[in-house]
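fyi for ur records
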Amino acid sequence: MTKTIEKSVGRALLVAARLHRARMGERLNALGLFPGQEQALKALQAAPMTMGELAGLLRVKPPTVSKTIGRLSLQGLVSREGGGRDGRLVQVALTEHGQRTAAALDAVWNQVEDELLEKLDSKERKQLRKLLRKVAKGLSQAGAELDDPEEDVDDAA
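which gave:
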């Protein structure tokens, strides 16, 4: 039995994700950022890390991180330094400007999160988080990868 598109959970999830991404994009644009870049900045806020560590944390492929860090570097938000014994491992860290921008992201994320969940009570919010984690785990176990072409919206820069 084939589900109609109106009754498809996947379609509803896709629409919600696209709307969320568009809203985040509007808010991030005010900070000079593109969707996806905020995740790298927030990840680096705690401490510098290698490109590989950042890719693992963000669950994306190394070329995606490399492009994102390259663009953030051009904006003066991150710096790259050789590290390790042989100098081949590159450590990425936030600059002072990057630290200020990362701190400003909390307000942006909270505003969009409030809009996203406005129609849900606290019990529904908790249930939604739990269900989305369960869905993501199922897709991950089925072999789905998170790194997709939409992840690189900052290619337009």
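The chain has a mean pLDDT of 87. thats all i got for now
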